[in-house]
Amino acid sequence: MAEGTPDRVVAWAREMRAVHARLRAALEACRTGSGTPRADLLLFCHGFCSALGGHHRAEDATLLPAVVAAHPSLAPVVARLEQDHLLVASLLADLEEVLARGGPGEELDRQLAGIAAIMESHFRYEERELLGVLDGLELDADPVAALGPL
User: Contact at 8 Å (CB) between 92 and 49?
Assistant: First the structure.
């Protein structure tokens, strides 16, 4: 890094990759936890739902507006990401409903598989479209505010 360059200028892409990796691992813990006691599985899944929802809310409130402000041509990309966030929120609400009523394992597995597919597609698109931009984004914000408490 060049002398005098703020660390944050080059850290956002790395931060996003790290958050996505932690969310992928949390989802995998839910998916492979079906053989664990129900209470442990509930903890894994509620934690995952909270983390993924928090990540998207933080992006919507802080990171994505900064991207559009710095790169107005990315407004359609950001709009698609925000639509994905709404879809994922709906899927997470469905998962929470299945958990709350003690739905059967097969239903839980289907819910998690659907979330996994959408989440992975979303993360790949987001990384493909934004990582290069994030490397140069000048955003003076706490990573928790921009990417969620992960």
Answer: yes
Task: Give helix then strand counts, H and E, for the chain.
Answer: 6, 0
Is 0.85 topped by the overall pTM? yes
Torsion sign across C-alpha atoms 56, 57, 60, 64: negative
Q: Write out pLDDT tens, residues 54-108.
A: 999 999 999 999 999 999 999 999 999 999 999 999 999 999 999 888 888 889 8
**Main-chain dihedrals φ then ψ at residue 5, nearest 5 degrees:** -85, 125
Contact 15, 58 (CB under 8 A): no
Domains for the chain: give ranges and CATH numbers. Answer: 7-147 (1.20.120)
Distance, CA of 58 to CA of 110 (rounded, Å)? 27
Question: Which residues are within 8 A (CB) of 75 and not within 5 positions of it... i.e. 6 or more apart?
Answer: 68
